[in-house]
Design a protein that fits this description.
Metallopeptidase family protein, 141 residues, 3 helices, elongated, alpha+beta
């Protein structure tokens, strides 16, 4: 009489030949692209500041910071930035810069232009110049 052997137990695809779970890959999957509003704000501010620091020595030691909203009121409206000469700091306020755009101009391109404009205006205020002087063609640069 022939002996019947039990059929081998088949493991799921997750198990290796020793019955353990498979190991994860050494390299993780790529991170999702930076595409949030806060990410875009930080990248836009960073690239504008990098340009300005490269062109104007007066801005090389200035700290550019970002905050959501101002904690003070100037009396003439909501400020978009704050310049502090004593601590060599410029603070840009993200929410007013991004949200106070006129209707029809609140798309990605106009939002980026508003952010860059705020950076240039704040930097110009810090060094006592006009914003258009900070561009590549202004004041000998």
């Amino acid at each position: 009489m022939a002996r019947s052997h039990p059929a081998p137990v088949r493991r799921g695809a997750r198990h290796g030949r020793h019955g353990r779970l498979g190991r994860s890959e050494v390299v993780r999957p790529p991170l999702p692209p930076l595409d949030g509003r806060l990410d875009r704000f930080e990248i836009t501010v960073g690239s504008a500041v990098e340009f300005l620091r490269g062109a104007w020595a007066e801005l090389r030691d200035v700290r550019f910071e970002m905050a959501a909203m101002p904690t003070h009121d100037r009396g003439d409206g909501i400020p978009l930035w704050r310049v502090d000469h004593l601590s060599q700091r410029v603070t840009l306020y993200r929410v007013p810069i991004e949200r106070l755009l006129p209707k029809g101009h609140d798309d990605g391109l106009h939002r980026r232009m508003a952010i860059e404009s705020a950076v240039f205006h704040a930097a110009a205020e810090y060094i006592g110049r006009e914003p258009w002087e900070l561009g590549p063609d202004g004041a000998g640069h």
